[in-house]
Design goal:
The protein has 198 residues and is mainly alpha-helical. 69% of the residues lie in helices and 0% in strands. α1 packs across α2.
Amino acid sequence: MGSRERLVETMSELMWERGYADTSPREVRQRSGVGQGSMYHHFPTKRDLALAALERNVADLLPAASELDGRGDPLARIEAYLMRSRDALKGCKVGRMTQDPQVREDPVLLAPVAAAFARVHASWVAALREAVAAGELRDDLDPERLAHTLMAVLQGGYVLAIAQQDPGPFDDARAGALDLLRAAAPPGRDDTTQTDRK
């Protein structure tokens, strides 16, 4: 791994751990083992390095969200994405950046965060529309609103877990969202009905 990649990876980790405002260039150099001259050769400012790290964090997030866009049963994909293994006490690499005042107030740093959430939202909406079209969810549901709700469940679950230093609230929030999705099945549709149709 070259010095540029080590700097980006280290900044990514530190921003996830403590945020942009509380990460100093000196800490990045110390943890990465990259000298000051090399650091400023690749990234003239801390902001330049932070932008590269944010883009990396977004790149880490999006492949996981692409699970929503796969083939097969849409509701099964939605459930698998909701319940996949996550480190609740570390939070979302991208979502945590919205809590950093220096990121929130800088349109350049906030742009990749906003773009990432827009892409994830689009994946949620597409999967939910498929679930409605397949008769797995009621057709009076609004996929746009429901997508925002499910994204809020995940992000809010992280906040609750971190606040209590316990992954339980995150797991409960996801399980509760899953309960609500199952309750939103059209009347008369249950596991027996689905089995009988096969």
